[in-house]
Amino acid sequence: MEAKQTRVKCRGIQMVNALAIIFLGVTGVYVQMYPFKWFQFTYYTLMSNSLVVLFFGLHLVLLATGRTGVLRSKGYLRVKAAVTTAILMTFFTFGILLLPKTDPSEVLAYDNLTVHFIVPILVAADWLLFDPRGSYRRTEPLLWTALPLAYLFYALVRGIVFNVPIPENEDSPFPYFFLNGRQIGWGTVTLYCVVMLVLFVLLGYAMYWIKRGKKRA
Length: 217
Fold this sequence. Notes:
By secondary structure, this protein is mainly α. 71% of the residues lie in helices and 0% in strands.
């Protein structure tokens, strides 16, 4: 009986956290886009936050309907970890590369705080506290790079091949300064991308290590 109550309480906490992630993600993205700034979806931040909102919408439904089998399946947990690493990429990229170039008043704005800091932290906390151990294969962190690599391909092709301008962006048609090879040189862009990819893989393997299976006696 006590174990059942603990599970119910744990599921309740997860549902509240999922609701918070969805609410903050939706409102943060909305404020960033207002009014009708659809070009904001050029940025990885809005794409990763939208992905998180969609995933945790599904997650909330599964929690509410008690679909424990799906929630505990290795396939689902691997996808959840991929979503987690994708949003943590937003957190670290902004914190390391973009924060020094951002006006302090903008950093403290609601939309910046939510999409760059609060949502990633809540998603990471959900993964750390509630996901079971032993669900990932050793190659998993390499597979998780698919999402940021797909975005990198999109951003570079959009800028180099199609040259689509991005309003209100001094690095247009590139979304970020570290992808603007016309300004900083393509060798520097390559260096940035390689270093970020290595750090992303290291993050993935840190997550793998934290959630590795328990050693058998």
